[in-house]
From TrEMBL:
It comes from the Bacteria. GO terms for cellular component: plasma membrane; transmembrane transporter complex. Keywords: ATP-binding, Nucleotide-binding, Transport. This is ATP-binding cassette domain-containing protein. It comes from Alteromonas hispanica. InterPro entries: AAA+_ATPase (IPR003593), ABC_transporter-like_ATP-bd (IPR003439), ABC_transporter-like_CS (IPR017871), ABC_transpr_LolD-like (IPR015854), MacB-like_ATP-bd (IPR017911), P-loop_NTPase (IPR027417). SUPFAM superfamilies: P-loop containing nucleoside triphosphate hydrolases. GO terms for molecular function: ATP binding; ATP hydrolysis activity; transmembrane transporter activity. CDD domains: ABC_MJ0796_LolCDE_FtsE. Residues 10-232 form the ABC transporter domain. Belongs to the ABC transporter superfamily. Macrolide exporter (TC 3.A.1.122) family.
Length: 232
């Protein structure tokens, strides 16, 4: 039987981003080319200000691009309207941030189910099952009714990962996911990401931490807005 070709989920062709402030224009991303296929696990390293977050925000549809072409899951994003972009963003992308971005006055379970709010067709039983599965996956079910302030940083990041995976998105994007964690919790988050990747998740992480970046089978470097692949 013929093996199916993995789908290209992220396809950037000559993507650039200029920030314009008055008469000054700053090229944060210069002609970036990047193809990420289903099941990839990739890191992008780079010094502070090299353009990593800007690039990740373009990929996550949080930032528009100034030039080039970006197809996400075969959708030509530059041709889509804001409403279509927000559906694509919600359905296809799970985000993990350095500072967790949990809402302090919601419980763990309420935070985790936030991405489900657009899915009106879910029964309450299915809703509860998804929250339970996501929290079980990251080992945080017993804290379902706790508030973020009652959790350690490592636990908060695991809750944020549960929120990122609850919709079963095609891609998980993480911006410095271990940036606020000690060595032990960083290792836990990395092994959780590796386990998710082994069960099929496609993961793209930006980090300035070389020890973390080196753990990925696919590695890129950002240098003053220019993206290049490292052959490891
Ligand atoms: N909204 C904005 N307006 C103007 N310039 C911006 C804006 N966002 C980012 N920049 C500039 O673009 C460049 C790249 O920023 P970016 O945040 O992508 O870098 P980074 O590699 O993620 O850095 P860090 O690791 O410090 O977060 C920086 O020089 C930054 O000042």
């Amino acid at each position: 039987m013929q093996k199916s070709v993995p789908r290209t989920l992220i396809n950037l062709q000559n993507v650039s981003k200029n920030f314009v402030s008055g008469k000054v224009s700053y090229h944060a991303v210069r002609n970036a080319n990047l193809q990420i296929t289903e099941g990839d696990m990739a890191s992008i390293r780079g010094t502070s200000g090299s353009g990593k977050t800007t690039l990740l925000c373009i990929i996550g549809l949080l930032e528009s691009l100034s030039g080039g072409q970006y197809d996400l899951c075969d959708f030509p994003t530059t041709q889509l309207k804001e409403k279509q972009l927000s559906i694509l963003r919600n359905k296809n992308i799970g985000w993990i941030f350095q500072n967790f971005n949990l809402i302090n006055d919601l419980t763990v379970a309420q935070n985790v189910c936030a991405p489900l709010r657009y899915n009106k067709s879910l029964s309450s039983k299915a809703y509860t099952a998804l929250v339970t599965d996501a929290l079980t996956e990251v080992g945080m079910l017993e804290k379902a009714n706790a508030f973020p302030s009652q959790l350690s940083g490592g636990q908060q990041q695991r809750v944020a990962i549960a929120r990122a995976i609850i919709n079963k998105p095609d891609i998980i994007l993480a911006d410095e996911p271990t940036g606020n964690l000690d060595k032990e919790n960083s290792a836990k988050v990395m092994s959780l990401l590796q386990r998710l990747n082994q069960s099929g998740a496609t993961i793209l992480v930006v980090t300035h931490d070389l020890d973390i970046a080196n753990m990925f089978p696919i590695q890129y470097q950002m240098d003053d807005g220019t993206l290049s692949r490292l052959h490891v």
